């Protein structure tokens, strides 16, 4: 079980996908609490250059059941991923690559002139990408 | 009505196991109709009579198309008994007001009504009371889209909608049935997207028929292309393009449609090889009054390289999807193969390619002239398609890069513009979806810039002299001034800085400036101070910050003045080595690059400035703290 969240700079969600769909409320709660950690990490890297390395925030914090990973783009759009702690096979590099794929898909959505930044994301291509990604995680 | 499984299962067997319950009356009626349409020796219904029959049902052409599609005749390519029966059921359903779907024929339906059939004793079938007299108008086929789409096709009665193509693509099918082309003419809706071809198509069909399973699709589709006015032209073209063009597949673009799309593209963007930006395309497609999520999806499907702009093939695909959607087709999840830009560029730009290649071999033409050529030669035959395709393969990437550069860069100096236009002229059709064209464009710009830069960069000098000289003039001036000034300047190495003109090229100086800030080893400081002196001497472009740095550096390194003076004396020797080969034509380019470097340097300096300010504040605080401490301590010591 895992969840993938996409939140905009004002911290409201643009896209939420959970696999499987139960326990969604708990996922939402976890993501919301992790936003504090994300903000703290963002403010900490104040003056340094924001490059790819620093976009990936890494393991935000581990709870008893889940691990939460964060990633922030240059426009302060945050990606949060909650994965089950039992997924010990999931390595940091894999998480990084997943975030990279998410970022790429997000930029593709941005290229769509019919998409207003700040809207919920309804793109089917994005959905399929996220689904395939989460399938391989769970 | 009772079920007639025995009667229904027979013909139903051909439709892939769909059980079609037919009542006795229906069975009888259908078989009568079928026998009328289909002469006994043949096993499938003749297209013309079927078409007539369908027309007589007075359903709108798009409904009839849908019926054809649903009943499987499109799929199998002919009207076998199964397809025919299903079609009749669907007609009945449509006439009763049900949607044309397989499910609706499972209901109990009245018999279909056909008006004005010749020899028709069964004109008005007796129908139960539920049958409301539904009289569909003869094809209305006017969509809102027409108002903004169709401007030029009205006179031609073009069958524009391949989605509505009745033609079949016969895949492997029961060989027992004779392949008879499926063409029926629906009423022509002028200006409509669902116009269908009439009987003329049979003629064309017969020429292309019996191609065999694999090519049958192409041959059949050929009929779809043009309506009667263009028939001769299109027949030829079909024969040539049979392998690429036509099909019943709603996702193929016919010639008329393509021409129309190209015209629309031209109205938005005169250069056929350039892009339509996202906002322009958005406004255009919003006029189709499709809901935004659907338009968003269409864009997702058609913008294959995800660059936020539509090339000509992408635009055609997007337009085609909009057309299909307006005609009731559901949008696919992924882009159909026939709408891929690679596919479309081969088909779409063939005529353009022909004339463009002709042009290119003579001389590079300006793009406007080219578009005129395109429009002239758009209808040219496509015999040379295979030759051109080979040529296309070669410079594709380069052309795309060039094209992207030409369209994305607005501030390219004229030399670049000429270059890119020429490249576009030679291979305008090398447009293909690229995975990440953004990176391409940026790298190509940089490459172009760099290539332009590299020849002019001066050879490395022994010291990190200011070498901002990418312009010959400055070098000359510097040399002259150094010659004259050398003797006078040497003694006071750190003079008051004369006001410097704010000229451009600051490649080296920016690097030079950074050094004292980053680290101040004596050697580098030496160079820096010497370079700065040069800067001072030559009155090169400068920034105020550099002045400050220079004074700082000099203040810190006064003991090293003498070695620096020696250094400066050796510098003029280096000056003659400055690039003399600069021509004035490259100055502009150099200036551009220098401007860019300047900006980068500006950014760096600004950041450094802010950091230094912070450090300064901290230092101030420390100083204040120390002073207070001192004051606290002083009375003690004094006392």
Automatic annotation (TrEMBL), chain A:
InterPro entries xrefs: Longin-like_dom_sf (IPR011012), Sedlin (IPR006722), TRAPPC2L (IPR044760)
GO terms under cellular component: endoplasmic reticulum; Golgi apparatus; perinuclear region of cytoplasm
Keywords for this protein: Cytoplasm, Endoplasmic reticulum, ER-Golgi transport, Golgi apparatus, Transport
Keyword Phosphoprotein tagged: no
Top-level taxon of the source organism: Eukaryota
A biological process term (GO) from this entry: endoplasmic reticulum to Golgi vesicle-mediated transport
Compartment list: Cytoplasm, Perinuclear region; Endoplasmic reticulum; Golgi apparatus
Matching PANTHER family: TRAFFICKING PROTEIN PARTICLE COMPLEX SUBUNIT 2
Family: Belongs to the TRAPP small subunits family. Sedlin subfamily.
Identification of the protein by name: Trafficking protein particle complex subunit 2-like protein
Organism in which the protein naturally occurs: Promerops cafer (Cape sugarbird)
Gene: Trappc2l
From TrEMBL, chain B:
GO BP term, example: endosomal transport
Recorded coiled-coil stretches: 591-629
Residue ranges, annotated region (Disordered): 142-250, 364-396, 426-470, 482-567
Top-rank taxon, per record: Eukaryota
InterPro entries: EF-hand-dom_pair, EF_Hand_1_Ca_BS, EF_hand_dom, EH_dom
Biased composition annotated in UniProt, kind: Polar residues: 224-233
Residue ranges occupied by any EH domain in the UniProt entry: 26-110, 257-342
Pfam families xrefs: EH (PF12763)
Ranges of Basic and acidic residues composition bias in the record: 142-159, 373-387
Any GO CC annotation of this UniProt entry: cytoplasm
GO molecular function: calcium ion binding
Annotated EF-hand domain residues: 290-325
PROSITE patterns xrefs: EF_HAND_1, EF_HAND_2, EH
Biased composition (Pro residues): 160-173, 490-501
Keywords, in A-Z order: Calcium, Coiled coil, Metal-binding
Protein name: REPS2 protein
Organism field: Poecile atricapillus (Black-capped chickadee)
């Amino acid at each position: 079980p895992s969840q993938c969240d996409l939140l905009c700079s004002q911290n409201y969600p643009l896209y939420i996908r959970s696999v499987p769909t139960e326990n969604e409320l708990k996922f939402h709660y976890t993501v919301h609490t992790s936003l504090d950690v994300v903000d703290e990490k963002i403010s900490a890297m104040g003056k340094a250059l924001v490059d790819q390395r620093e976009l990936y925030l890494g393991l935000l914090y581990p709870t008893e059941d889940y691990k939460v990973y964060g990633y922030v783009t240059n426009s302060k759009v945050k990606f949060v991923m909650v994965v089950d702690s039992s997924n010990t096979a999931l390595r940091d590099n894999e998480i990084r690559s997943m975030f990279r794929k998410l970022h790429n898909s997000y930029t593709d959505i941005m290229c769509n002139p019919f998409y207003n930044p700040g809207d919920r994301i309804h793109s089917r291509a994005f959905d399929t990408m996220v689904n395939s990604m989460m399938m391989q995680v769970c | 009505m009772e079920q007639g499984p025995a009667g229904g299962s027979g013909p139903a067997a051909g439709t892939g196991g769909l059980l079609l319950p037919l009542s006795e009356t229906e069975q009888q009626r259908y078989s009568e109709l079928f026998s009328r349409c289909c002469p006994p020796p043949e096993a499938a219904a003749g297209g013309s009579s079927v078409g007539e029959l369908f027309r007589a049902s007075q359903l709108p052409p798009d409904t009839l198309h849908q019926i054809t599609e649903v009943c499987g005749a499109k799929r199998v390519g002919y009207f076998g008994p199964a397809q025919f029966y299903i079609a009749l059921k669907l007609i009945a359903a449509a006439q009763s007001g049900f949607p044309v779907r397989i499910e609706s024929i499972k209901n109990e339906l009245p018999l279909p009504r056909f008006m004005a059939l010749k020899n028709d004793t069964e004109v008005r079938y007796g129908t139960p009371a539920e049958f409301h007299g539904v009289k569909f108008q003869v094809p209305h086929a006017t969509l809102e889209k027409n108002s903004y789409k169709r401007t030029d096709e009205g006179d031609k009665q073009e069958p524009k909608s391949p989605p509505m193509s009745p033609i079949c693509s016969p895949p492997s099918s029961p060989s027992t049935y004779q392949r008879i082309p499926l063409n029926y003419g629906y009423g022509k809706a002028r200006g409509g997207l669902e116009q269908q071809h009439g009987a003329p198509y049979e003629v064309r069909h017969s020429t292309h028929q019996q191609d065999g399973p694999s090519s049958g699709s192409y041959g059949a589709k050929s009929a779809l292309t043009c309506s009667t006015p263009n028939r001769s032209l299109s027949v030829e073209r079909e024969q040539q393009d049979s392998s690429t063009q036509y099909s019943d597949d709603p996702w193929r673009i016919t010639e008329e449609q393509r021409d129309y799309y190209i015209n629309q593209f031209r109205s938005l963007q005169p250069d056929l090889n350039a892009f339509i930006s996202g906002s322009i395309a958005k406004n255009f497609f919003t006029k189709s009054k499709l809901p935004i999520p659907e338009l968003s999806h269409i864009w997702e499907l058609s913008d294959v390289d995800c660059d936020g702009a539509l090339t000509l093939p992408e635009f055609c695909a997007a337009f085609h999807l909009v057309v299909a959607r307006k005609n009731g087709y559901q949008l696919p999840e992924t882009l159909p193969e026939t709408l891929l830009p690679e596919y479309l560029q081969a088909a779409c730009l063939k005529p353009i390619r022909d004339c463009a290649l002709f042009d290119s071999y003579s001389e590079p033409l300006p793009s406007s002239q080219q578009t005129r050529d395109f429009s002239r030669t758009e209808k040219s035959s496509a015999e040379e398609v295979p030759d051109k395709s080979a040529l296309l393969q070669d410079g594709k990437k380069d052309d795309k890069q060039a094209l992207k550069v030409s369209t994305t860069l607005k501030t390219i100096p004229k030399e670049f513009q000429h270059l890119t236009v020429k490249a576009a002229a030679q291979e305008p059709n090398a447009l293909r979806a690229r995975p990440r064209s953004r990176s391409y464009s940026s790298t190509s710009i940089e490459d172009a810039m760099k290539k332009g830069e590299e020849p002019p960069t001066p050879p490395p000098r022994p010291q990190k002299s200011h070498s901002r000289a990418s312009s010959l003039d400055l070098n000359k001036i510097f040399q002259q001034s150094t010659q004259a000034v050398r003797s006078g300047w040497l003694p006071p190495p750190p003079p008051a800085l004369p006001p410097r003109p704010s000229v451009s090229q600051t490649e080296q100086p920016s690097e030079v400036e950074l050094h004292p800030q980053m680290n101040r080893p004596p050697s580098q400081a030496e160079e820096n101070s010497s370079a700065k002196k040069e800067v001072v001497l030559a009155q090169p472009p400068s920034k105020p910050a550099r002045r400050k740095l220079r004074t700082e550096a000099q203040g810190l390194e006064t003991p090293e003045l003498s070695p620096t003076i020696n250094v400066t004396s050796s510098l003029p020797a280096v000056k003659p080595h400055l690039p003399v080969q600069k021509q004035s034509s490259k100055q502009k380019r150099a200036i551009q690059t220098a401007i860019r470097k300047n900006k980068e340097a500006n950014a760096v300096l600004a950041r450094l400035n802010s950091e230094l300010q912070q450090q300064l504040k901290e230092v101030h605080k420390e100083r204040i703290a120390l002073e207070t401490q001192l004051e606290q301590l002083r009375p003690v010591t004094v006392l």
